[in-house]
Amino acid sequence: MLTVENVSLHYGAAQALRRVSLQANVGEITCVLGRNGVGKTSLLRALAGHQKTSGGRILLDGEPLDGLAAHQRARRGVAYVPQGREIFPLLTVAENLETGVATSNRRDSSVLDEVFRLFPVLQEMLGRRGGDLSGGQQQQLAIGRALVMRPRLLILDEPTEGIQPSIIKDIGRAIEYLREKGGMAILLVEQYFDFARQLADRFAVMERGAIVMAGDRTALQGEDVRQRLAI
Question: Is residue 195 within 8 Å of residue 172, measured between CB atoms?
Fold first, then answer.
């Protein structure tokens, strides 16, 4: 379980997060929704250790993550797929996947086999450079690189952004499979409302750096959440 308690974050004098609290449970998908600029990515960067918080606590299975660098959190089981993917464009697909394996103390070939079952195109393109893949293929590679870490917490920042519909479906099926398999908590930031509604077990809506609405998946079926996301 991920537990976030009253987390605040500042960029200089500007406050990006205002006492944010939420939980993400193993075997569930927790979706964070909101318009652009409300603090969703800042929250994920804080969880992954890419941005220092200015207050509150972050715990994974009761163990504090505060004060740990990003690579230390990765070794604790935090896998982050950032917005824009951020794969290594000059490395091959195989080498990109190796960077994820490197965070683990032991290697497990079955994890790679699972990644290839979820995203067969990656196995077909092992020798191709990451920068030569399409946007959708790069997104699959970024998720695959996170999965070979065998994470306890998988953090996904808008995995559908700029992706063609057929690959969005593949990514959705992969996320559903990971939920059903259990063993990890999944935290998903998403602006594509229908994608989030299909996947989320729980959700939280952010406005101006704070969570203003939260609930389980039944509440996503109404119009209240959609209206909060409308421009």
Answer: yes
